[in-house]
Amino acid sequence: MARWDPWHGCHKHSEGCKYCYIHKGDSRRGIDTDNVVKTDRFTAPIEKNKKGEYKMKAGQLVYLCFSSDFLLEDADPWRKECWEMIKERSDLHFMFLTKRIERFLDCIPSDWGDGYPNVTVGCTIENQARADERLSIFQNLPIVHKNVICQPLIEGIDIKKYLQDVEFVVVGGESDYRARPFYYDWALSLRKQCIATNTGFEFRQCGTYFIKDGKQYKLAVRDLCSQARKAGINYYLS
After folding, report:
1. Of 90, 95, 147, 200, which sits with the fewest C-beta atoms within 10 Å of its C-beta?
2. What 3-state class would DSSP assign to 40?
3. What Rg value do the Cα atoms of the chain yield, rounded?
4. pLDDT 10s digit of each residue in the chain, 238 long?
């Protein structure tokens, strides 16, 4: 597993961005997140050592642009070069998430065709309105590997009609002392929808304010993922 952030910075785009961890982290360091800049890791996938070998070892899953959005407008001048590196490193699998799926067709390379087999695209949603808006576009796009990321989920949603050809759904609550509550029933409902459509499901994290069986719990950030795992409701396809 590796991470590649060719640029840093983003702009809040919708309701799920309210307590964005990137903006919070940058604020603590005195960084303006709205200033989008290329990083010194821009060419990381194709960098080589003195032996002429790629530093980023083959066979890895590479989390792409997890401190921004790969389809961000500010990055339009740089994305073509990124696609070229992704194509060169066909021995790696790249995954990126986006809240800007409506820009997808304007951001892909000319030889994309039905999709690069070494790229997974995760469409991020947070409520029913964004699910209907984004997934109605996502379901018709030429992408080989599709994931839906319901994180931070801020209300219960029904997405079963959009899950054809989706490989995996990830669900998680919001992390912040002001976070909106996350109801365990939301996760159970999405799990049921995924099982009905034979789609993989993972309960990735609880919310800071987690409601189960009518009782609210306040969880520490360090416990959000471990408590979700303890629920034992993940559904993986064989």
Report:
1. 90
2. coil
3. 18
4. 999 999 999 999 999 999 999 999 999 999 999 999 999 999 999 999 999 999 999 999 999 999 999 999 999 999 999 999 999 999 999 999 999 999 999 999 999 999 999 999 999 999 999 999 999 999 999 999 999 999 999 999 999 999 999 999 999 999 999 999 999 999 999 999 999 999 999 999 999 999 999 999 999 999 999 999 999 999 999 7
Closest CA to 75 of 45, 42, 47: 42
In terms of Cα–Cα distance, which of 121, 129, 231 is closest to 173?
231
pTM of the model as a whole: 0.96
* Listed residue (79, 128, 77, 121) closest to 100, CA to CA: 121
Angle at 207 between CA 206 and CA 212, to 5 degrees: 70
Contact assessment for residue 7 and residue 41, using Cβ atoms and an 8 Å cutoff: no
Q: Which two tokens mark 6?
A: 């060719």
Q: Is the bond leading into 6 cis (omega within 30 degrees of zero)? A: no
Distance CA 136, CA 173 (A): 23
Pairing status of strand 7-8 against strand 37-38 = antiparallel
DSSP string across 63-127: EE-TTS-TT-GGGHHHHHHHHHHHHHTTTSEEEEEES-GGGHHHHS-TT-TT--TTEEEEEEE-S
